[in-house]
Design brief:
The chain has 135 residues and is α+β, with helices and mostly antiparallel strands. The protein has two domains: 38 residues; 80 residues, ACT-like. Chain A, domain 2 (Alpha-Beta Plaits, 2-Layer Sandwich), CATH 3.30.70. It is built from four helices and four strands, in the order ααβαββαβ. A four-stranded antiparallel beta sheet has the order 2-3-1-4. A hairpin with a 4-residue loop joins β2 and β3. The relative contact order is 0.20. The protein binds nickel (II) ion. Nickel (II) ion (NI) binds next to β2.
C-alpha cells in the first residue's frame, strides 16, 4: 500500500510565491501534485549517481565563451577521448561570445561520471548540466 503522508514544509514567502506561479503556469492542480512531480524528477535525475555500475544514456549540456582560453580545442580533445560514449554533438552559437553545446551520451556510469567531471573541470566552461537515465 502506498499510503499518503502529510508533512509540513517551511520556505521563504518569495520562494513559495515563485513556486505557486510555476504551478499555475505548469497546470498542476495543487502544490502536493507539483511537489510530488518535482521530487520524482529529482530522484530520477540523481539516482544514477548512487551507483558505480550499470549503463546510462542522456545528455550533457554546456555553456561556454569560445574566446576563453583554449576551451574549444580542449572540449574537442575531451570528446575524442570519450568517443565511445558520445553518440553525437550539437553546437549552437547562441551569441557573439557564447556557445551552447549538447552531447548525447550512452555508456557506463563510471565512464560518464568521469566525462562529467572532466568537462566540469575545463577552464572556460560556464555551466554543465547532465541529464541521464539508467537503462
Ligand atoms: Ni559557437
Amino acid at each position: 500500500m502506498n499510503e499518503l503522508i502529510r508533512f509540513g514544509v517551511a520556505m521563504p514567502a518569495s520562494l513559495l510565491e515563485e513556486f505557486d506561479s510555476l504551478i499555475e503556469r505548469s497546470g498542476f492542480a495543487n502544490r502536493s501534485l507539483a511537489l510530488r512531480h518535482l521530487v520524482r524528477q529529482h530522484i530520477a535525475e540523481k539516482s544514477w549517481e548512487q551507483d558505480s555500475v550499470g549503463t546510462v544514456c542522456g545528455t550533457i549540456t554546456m555553456l561556454y565563451d569560445h574566446h576563453s582560453n583554449e576551451v574549444s580545442s580542449e572540449l574537442t580533445s575531451v570528446q575524442h577521448d570519450f568517443g565511445g560514449q558520445i553518440t553525437c554533438t550539437t553546437h549552437v552559437h547562441v551569441s557573439h561570445e557564447l556557445c551552447l553545446e549538447t552531447i548525447i551520451v550512452n555508456g557506463s556510469v563510471e565512464q560518464l561520471k568521469r566525462l562529467e567531471e572532466t568537462l566540469t573541470a575545463l577552464k572556460g566552461i560556464q555551466s554543465v548540466h547532465i541529464a541521464v537515465f539508467k537503462l
